[in-house]
Specification:
The protein is 35% helix and 16% strand. Strands 2-1-3-4 form a four-stranded parallel β-sheet, covered by helices on one side. Helix 1 crosses helix 4. The radius of gyration is 14 Å and the shape is globular. The model has no long low-confidence stretch (mean pLDDT 91).
Length: 139
């Protein structure tokens, strides 16, 4: 972990409009101020996927104000854990970082019905990650 008591996690997917946005929102929601959360994309979209926004709203989390962000070397360098979700070789590698690759279906072009199972799997993985980081998830 970083020099402070707060873990830092970066979620990366190609467009930063779906999977990485959901993961960042769940980690922020469940980890609170005990974890620093970033998300980015190697080729960010203009907006977050509307079906993703709706699926997260159903889970009680509003991400309607979020915007896709470009992946930077600084974001990777500043993170303790980097979780990729289909960004391939676009993610810079730094020795000493913990890298995880989460194979998840891409919600791009899908309706909210198809996004719900992806959302639910991301929430399960976030809860497991919090346990690994020694952070009790918020209720």
């Amino acid at each position: 972990m970083s020099s402070s008591a707060t873990a830092s996690v970066l979620f990366v997917c190609v467009h930063n409009a779906g999977r990485s946005q959901m993961a960042a929102a769940f980690l922020t929601h469940l980890g609170g101020d005990r974890v620093q959360v970033r998300s980015a994309g190697s080729a960010p979209a203009d907006t977050v996927n509307a079906a993703v926004v709706e699926a997260m709203r159903e889970a009680g989390i509003d991400i309607s104000a979020e915007t896709p962000k470009i992946l930077t070397t600084e974001a990777v360098h500043s993170s303790d854990v980097v979780i990729t979700m289909g960004c391939g070789d676009a993610c810079p590698y730094f020795p000493g970082k913990r890298y995880l690759d989460w194979q998840l279906d891409d919600p791009a072009g899908q309706g909210v019905e198809a996004v719900r199972p992806i959302r639910d799997e991301i929430e399960r993985r976030i809860r497991r990650l919090l346990t690994e980081l020694g952070i009790e998830p918020a209720a």
